[in-house]
Amino acid sequence: MSDSVLVTGATGNTGAHVVAGLRERSHRARAASRHPDSADADAVAFDWSDDATFAPALTGVRAVYVVAPAGAADPVPRVRPFLETAAARGVRRVVLLSSSAVARGEPGLGEIHDLVTDLFAEPTVLRPSWFMQNFVGDHPLAETIRRAREIVTATGDGRLGFIDAADIAATAVEALTATEPVGGDLVLTGPESLSYPEAAAIVSEVLGRPVRHVDVSTAELARRLTAAGYSAEFSSMLAALDERIRTGEQDLVTTTVRDITGRTPTSLRHFLAGHASRLASSP
Ligand SMILES: NC(=O)c1ccc[n+]([C@@H]2O[C@H](COP(=O)([O-])OP(=O)(O)OC[C@H]3O[C@@H](n4cnc5c(N)ncnc54)[C@H](OP(=O)(O)O)[C@@H]3O)[C@@H](O)[C@H]2O)c1
């Protein structure tokens, strides 16, 4: 009987919360990772670069949470064969993690959005704004806060609706388990729209030390990301997303998290206060 939910990216920002949220509700969650936890009987080996891991991971699975491989400028060649395998094995429900900055049909995640919608009977596409988790952990934004007390972007004063990955995951759990499919193309944000200069002021308050916003050109940001170790192609793609914030296109606040989960999405101030030690030093 197919009763499990396969969670890709299960060790990541949203996936770890999706696994925990499913299990809290007594659903079987198969936690997919390149390094599955040997203490977890429902963990499964999975590698987007190795097609041979797809079918075993999909055994007994009725729904899938899809986190495309991070760091790949074009994830489509890796994700397409996986989705085709899942559809051929009778999976009906898929929840895709995409991005508010990538509309259906656009290169990369937008093409995967099309694939999920075309291949599955019960597709839901989550399109969150930028994650609050980028301010802590190993994201380049977090690294420059710790090292230089700076937030470097190419966004100017453009605003965006930062969101806690836990709120995205709660929405995903609902979409994976609701009796009636949630469906649709869902733009998810936190409770307010903030510019990076405003976010820097909140970070400064929480840290008790000044952190300044440094506005650079898109080309300069791409150069800095490449110097930090990202591929040139991925750096250009990430930097170009900042332009969408600069133009005001991402100045959005939606009520979708609350509408679907009933929970109040976390504010940036509340999130950062809960992660103050990780703002100051490496995790
Ligand atoms: N960060 C943002 O602000 C933001 C905003 C909107 C949308 N998004 C989207 O959210 C997604 C997740 O981004 P994230 O930075 O938060 O990453 P993440 O989910 O924290 O981490 C990446 C996850 O992917 C897994 N992974 C990486 N390479 C893999 C591979 N070859 N095979 C199998 N699993 C692999 C890792 O698992 P293992 O290491 O355990 O294998 C890890 O669990 C991306 O698609 C991104 O475009 C991000």
Automatic annotation (TrEMBL):
Highest taxon, organism lineage: Bacteria
Protein name in the entry: Oxidoreductase
Pfam families: NmrA
Organism: Mycolicibacterium psychrotolerans
Domain NmrA-like: residue ranges: 2-243
